[in-house]
Automatic annotation (TrEMBL):
Protein name: Serine hydroxymethyltransferase
Cofactor(s) listed: pyridoxal 5'-phosphate
Organism of derivation: Peltaster fructicola
A single MF term (Gene Ontology): pyridoxal phosphate binding
Catalytic activity: (6R)-5,10-methylene-5,6,7,8-tetrahydrofolate + glycine + H2O = (6S)-5,6,7,8-tetrahydrofolate + L-serine
Enzyme class: transferase
Biological role: Interconversion of serine and glycine.
All residue ranges annotated as the Serine hydroxymethyltransferase-like domain in the record: 14-419
First-listed, main subcellular location of the protein, grouped into a coarse class: mitochondrion
Amino acid sequence: MSMDSQIKLLSAHLEEADATVYDIISKEKRRQKHFINLIPSENFTSQAVLDALGSIMQNKYSEGYPGARYYGGNEFIDEAETLCQQRALQTFGLKNADWGVNVQPLSGSPANLYAYSALLNTHDRIMGLDLPHGGHLSHGYQTPTKKISAISKYFETLPYRLDEKTGLIDYDKLEEMAMLYRPKIIIAGTSAYSRLIDYKRFREIVDKVGNCYLLCDMAHISGLVAGGVIPSPFEFADVVTTTTHKSLRGPRGAMIFFRKGVRSVDKKGVETMYDLEGPINMSVFPGHQGGPHNHTITALAVALHQAQQPEFKEYQRTVLENAKALASRLGDSKESGGLGYNVVSGGTDNHLVLVDLKDKQIDGARVERILELVGVAANKNTVPGDKSAMKPGGVRMGTPAMTTRGFQGADFKRVADIVHRAVNITKKLDGKALEAAQKSGRKNPASVNAFREYVKEGEEIVEIIELRREVEDWVANYNMASIDTTIRNRMENEYQRHVDRGNLSIHGYEPPFLTREVARANTIPRWQARERYRYLTGWYDFPTDPSPGLHRPQGLERPQLPARSSSIGTLMV
């Protein structure tokens, strides 16, 4: 084995080293570029965060915490993790004397387990919002016959629920149940609840129970909290957990915040201090994890820095406005210009909208499938009254991802219309699927699987094909910075490489990589991509479209290229 062969193996970029994986990633880029992403737990992170995620910080092992590692060579790993902790506190307006934070958890569900394990003994009691009513699996979900979440195996769990008439948390019933059940933790957190949480009321209930902690899971809304557009849980909580990749728009990770200082004062004035830092840190490492993912922690530090910028706060305001526009268009009566859907709780105060489809005689699983086939990513979701999580009555939609791409209120009203068309297509196809399944003698002809088998990939269904084309043509016009920047940077590097070699003429050569990547990104033929490249590099002007099907994007301007410039301007893909 020669050193040269080792260097070649280690230095090759992905396209050269593994064409199969490169192709999968390229296909996923195209999918993300041409899909309307309405999944409220997803977002498009920044190029800077992706740069840190793909950095050499992932090479280092660093079990332990800053200043107390089990490996040498962690000077700069310590610096990155400490910076991340500082920025986490700053982002949410917290003082180091009052709060601490662990940034090592790998994701949200594990972070919740780590927090429970730090505060409780096995089989101690937890109360969280029931999953069909908008809670999360990691809050201890179980059915009458089965413990679904491992949390419900390790601890005793009891759900609280919504008032099904209003779609709001029933705080009075929660208090009544808590006083009887006497849990050690009450969780204020949701995954499909579109209204503000009354943290003050939660605090009052926790204090009334006594010897109980208030744990707030703000995984979905942490970006909105950081942006200051909805109330913060930190004034009332003992522990706060969050993921970092949803509305916060960071890498896939999690954080656990914990209080410091005085927890309570008795009638004699004797103070009881919080003792959370040690147990929580020990629960994360060595209790549940080994070495942390340093590239993720470093990328999180970048995301938290971005979350403190004015642009991020404006983004969160737009997320909220867009959600209200989506909810209004879907839920308002037809007389008021809406579509007349049953929006759970009647609207939204955050980033998501939950629609109950049961009155449309269709379920969320079927609608989710048709939405996917027409280029819209949403997710089926349980709504109050549901009995099956696999065939729920609702669809959950959110605005963070497409707001990142530049959608405004009018765009989300158009999204609502697309969803409405997809629902109508679903209802039409459901009848045909049932008829076909009955004729074939299929077992369970009304099942979701029978529907999916009938629809297949939608390649023979005209309504799906037409709506998919409309969605793709529309959404491709919106920026997707991390993909667009990657292609632009590669184009600039390729351009400069040929300039340096002396074989690039403004009037006669375009590197094959450039037209290939432009074609891939736009899903247009190579010849159209070549025309676009030639315009961008100044080969020729065109007052109108030079080729059928090629349209100059709004805002596309020809760059002024000096003889050895590495800049070719902004490529709109």
